[in-house]
Amino acid sequence: MEAAAPLLGVEDGDYAPVKTFRELKDMVWSETVKTWAISGPVIFQIVCQYGTNSVTNIFVGQLGEIELSGVSIAISVIATFAFGFMFGMGSATETLCGQAFGAGQIHMLGVYMQRSWIIMFICALIITPIYVFATPILKLLGQQDDVAELAGSFSLLILPQLFSFVVAFPTQKFLQAQSKVWTLAWIGFGALMIHVLMLWLFIFQFGWGTTGAALALNISGWGISIAQCIYVMGWCRDAWHGFSWLAFRDLWGFVKLSFSSAIMFCLEIWYMSTIIILAGHLPNAVISVDSLSICMNLDGWENIIFIGINVAMSVRVSNELGKARPRAAEYSVYVTVVESLLLGLLFMVAIFFAKDHFAVIFTSSVTVQKYVAKLAYLLGITMVLNSVQPVISGVAIGAGWQALVAYINLGCYYIFGLPLGIILGYVANFGVKGLWGGMIAGIAMQTIMLLIVLYKTNWNKEVAETSGRLQKWTGQDNKIKEET
């Protein structure tokens, strides 16, 4: 941190223009430390979060194939859909809390969090029928009856977990905006350890089967939510001033920003999930789906790293814009984009070198292993593109561009990439390679468009818009606070 001191302006703390190699080196090091100080704990937290679902499947898998299939589908289809939408809705809190914290309006963070609680509770009520009617929904999607019925019953049992998202996600964004990410990491780790213990007790010792697995998920979800709230209310007294009626003000504007965030996030999640569904209708469906699932599994682990960087980028950009430091926001973006690209290229090279071997971890089928090796080149390209795209999405959240990125995602993914993939896969008979190639084309177009948006961004204008947004959202509240 001290190495960056010569670059800092005296008056406002913003970076001075970089003119020498030494200044560039100091700035890059400073931004690298700041970014990874946030992204490291977030990555650890996400690993724990993914681990909760993974160990649940492992324990349930000991009960039987039908139990494993039913629980896996309930978690990967029903719960993941709800998770994605609710997580996206919480991103509005990330934008506003980050910018308010940077601007020194720390007292508003608790109000924003409460507004998000209200909106997300209503969203949870709207999503509830998906859990209640999961069985007919899954049958409609082509699942066999016994699996769909078990998945539907399990989905109904984990309904309380859905409502834990209402509390957990806004609270996470509240803490992330203040860079209090290690707290979230340790809460996530503790929850994972307790979750494993509960699964062992409920399934094997008490004999509760899938009901025990559902109970463990519910307790873990609410345990995380309650632990985060206890920390907020006990150790964040500068940002938490108790429950306030101000949380009910300007709800419609908050809803619009939240919905834009959810659409932006969900369009990205659903896009890559679609390729597996489409692959299931190809002539060699079993081999295609198996090999594609292996590749997507590895891509998912890479995504965990870049989701952490996404959060760090959102925090850095929103904080710096709130502090009226345009050059710091700009430098942070470009340093992180370049470093993420280099990291993505490293992953691509590793995949290319291991293309004939890494599938052995997942399957003993020689046929699937050979097919995975043929898809490795597409996986490597996807990893490079997925290294840059989450960074820019984090910038979008930090700067409040969610609506713009949602439109870009819709056009690039669903109007261009998906139809192209269908044409290449089904009409041109390229199979899964064609499907995936079309998807890659959509991601490439989205990445290029977002890079153009970044290149044309006037960061001084972004600071002004951030100031205007904060005045709009906090002007009346500040006046009330001063009067009281």
TrEMBL record:
GO terms for molecular function: antiporter activity; xenobiotic transmembrane transporter activity. It is found in: Membrane. GO terms for cellular component: membrane. Keywords: Membrane, Transmembrane, Transmembrane helix. Its main location: membrane. It holds the Pfam family MatE. The chain crosses the membrane at residues 73-96, 117-138, 150-169, 181-203, 215-236, 257-280, 300-319, 331-355, 375-397, 404-428, 434-455. It is a multi-pass membrane protein. InterPro entries: MATE_euk (IPR045069), MATE_fam (IPR002528). GO terms for biological process: xenobiotic detoxification by transmembrane export across the plasma membrane. Belongs to the multi antimicrobial extrusion (MATE) (TC 2.A.66.1) family. This is Protein DETOXIFICATION. It comes from Cucumis melo (Muskmelon). The lineage of its organism: Eukaryota, Viridiplantae, Streptophyta, Embryophyta, Tracheophyta.
